[in-house]
């Protein structure tokens, strides 16, 4: 599942540099996550680093529009890293 930054975002700039897949960018009003690049840090870390550094509770959540299995996320990781 890709992650989603909610409107609770305060644009603190903590999540963007933590994303190993460069999936986080500044949107019109607050940071956004590109679901095509988000692997929930599978292949990199044990848990999503953006959620770990975010100072706002429940600001970064599972994106209900982009449900993916762990295997699908790992496949995306392999593709993004050019390992396939």
Automatic annotation (TrEMBL):
<dbReference type="Pfam" id="PF12838">
    <property type="entry name" value="Fer4_7"/>
</dbReference>
<dbReference type="InterPro" id="IPR047927">
    <property type="entry name" value="YfhL-like"/>
</dbReference>
<dbReference type="GO" id="GO:0051539">
    <property type="term" value="F:4 iron, 4 sulfur cluster binding"/>
</dbReference>
<keyword id="KW-0677">Repeat</keyword>
<feature type="domain" description="4Fe-4S ferredoxin-type">
    <location>
        <begin position="1"/>
        <end position="29"/>
    </location>
</feature>
<keyword id="KW-0249">Electron transport</keyword>
<keyword id="KW-0408">Iron</keyword>
<keyword id="KW-0479">Metal-binding</keyword>
<protein>
    <submittedName>
        <fullName>4Fe-4S dicluster domain-containing protein</fullName>
    </submittedName>
</protein>
<dbReference type="InterPro" id="IPR017896">
    <property type="entry name" value="4Fe4S_Fe-S-bd"/>
</dbReference>
<keyword id="KW-0004">4Fe-4S</keyword>
<dbReference type="InterPro" id="IPR017900">
    <property type="entry name" value="4Fe4S_Fe_S_CS"/>
</dbReference>
<dbReference type="GO" id="GO:0046872">
    <property type="term" value="F:metal ion binding"/>
</dbReference>
<keyword id="KW-0411">Iron-sulfur</keyword>
<keyword id="KW-0813">Transport</keyword>
């Amino acid at each position: 599942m890709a992650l989603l930054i909610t409107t609770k975002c305060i644009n603190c700039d903590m999540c963007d540099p933590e994303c190993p897949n460069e999936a986080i960018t500044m949107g019109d009003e607050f940071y956004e996550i590109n679901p095509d690049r988000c692997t929930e840090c599978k292949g990199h870390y044990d848990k999503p680093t953006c959620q770990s550094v975010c100072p706002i509770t429940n600001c970064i959540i599972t994106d209900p529009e982009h449900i993916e299995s762990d295997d699908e996320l790992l496949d995306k990781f392999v593709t993004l890293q050019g390992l396939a």
